[in-house]
Task: inverse folding
């Protein structure tokens, strides 16, 4: 028997965008639900989508308010936000409210599909709580607290390890500066502290720290750890 298709809820008030997503995602085997406004989107949640694509510019409910409502009803469903070009503050707010990722319009279908796969993998990882994280040559044993690049064991300071642990727990998901500062320091709000530790971590785990393959920068927003293999 074939596995049931993954159900994706597309929330967007623009018919051409919904048509583009319906056609592009259907060819990849996804089962598409559509909502043209926030009210309909909340009703469609009853059909238990496995992933949500949310446009923030809706006619009836402000996108961030709808995101908050969705998270109030379902804490774990992956949400990929579509945002207007240059809306950096809106992206940060959406991620802080629980979105897993974002794409800026106009976007490429291949990139959207990759972001969706990463969000779905992250959800499975959280549910399974895999003790060993692997991405390329990087492995992180969360039980034994051992970090390796290839066969080489990497010695990290306690704060560097805590930073990597948080990134691993949310691998594939964009984490804002504010989220990471809150997780790692109770009082600090200056992102410069975070940049120092990210730089130190990259020096230890990246083949070329200036062109990182694992800890990726989301300019002006935060960081993302490459999704697990």
Result:
């Amino acid at each position: 028997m074939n596995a049931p298709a993954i159900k994706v809820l597309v929330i967007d008030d623009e018919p051409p965008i919904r048509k583009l997503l319906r056609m592009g995602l259907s060819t990849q085997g996804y089962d598409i639900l559509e909502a043209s406004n926030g009210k309909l989107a909340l009703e469609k949640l009853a059909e238990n989508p496995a992933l949500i694509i949310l446009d923030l510019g809706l006619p009836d409910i402000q996108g961030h308010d709808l995101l908050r409502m969705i998270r109030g009803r379902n804490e774990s469903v992956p949400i990929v936000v579509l945002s207007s070009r240059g809306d950096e503050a809106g992206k940060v707010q959406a991620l802080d409210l629980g979105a897993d990722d974002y794409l800026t319009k106009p976007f490429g279908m291949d990139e959207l599909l990759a972001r969706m796969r990463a969000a779905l993998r992250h959800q499975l990882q959280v549910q399974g709580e895999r003790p060993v994280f692997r991405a390329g040559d990087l492995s992180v044993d969360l039980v034994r607290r051992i970090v390796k690049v290839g066969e080489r064991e990497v010695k990290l300071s306690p704060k560097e390890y805590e930073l990597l642990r948080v990134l691993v727990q949310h691998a594939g998901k964009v984490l804002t500066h504010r989220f990471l500062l809150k997780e790692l320091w109770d009082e600090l709000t200056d992102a410069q502290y975070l940049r120092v530790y990210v730089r130190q971590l990259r020096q230890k785990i990246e083949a070329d720290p200036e062109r990182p393959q694992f800890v990726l920068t989301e300019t002006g927003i935060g960081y993302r750890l490459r999704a697990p293999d």
Observations:
- The longest helix spans residues 109-128.
